[in-house]
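Page 47, continued from p. 46.
Same chain as before, 136 aa.
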Amino acid sequence: MIQPHIDGVCAAIELVDDRSADYANLDVRSLVADNSWNGGIVLSQFASKWPDLESVLGRATKDQVAIGEGHGRDILGHPFNSVAWLATQLASRGERLKAGQVVMTGSVMKTVFPMEDASYRFDLAEVGSVEVQVVG
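Result:
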């Protein structure tokens, strides 16, 4: 079980920069080589106690209008499943996750690419909230 090895969970917004990729001509090697376009992350405060993450609801808004939502179970059945997968893959290479590392487990909703200045917010029920302002 992975949960006893996790110090905290938080709400997060990943800043994705796909640099106008041509999705029709992508391959896995390109995604991996480009770190899947991660431009950064914005994190809420970490919670050391959290609800059942399988059923927890995450909601995103743009200028206070709903743009997406989903549950923890939408991430491989449970967000910790992706952490376990990562730990297994690292172990097969003689590596391991280290204390203090942040692991992005996946998203409860589809990726949204901002096209205009706006305020984005993500609320993860009983865990935390995070906001980011997009200014062009």
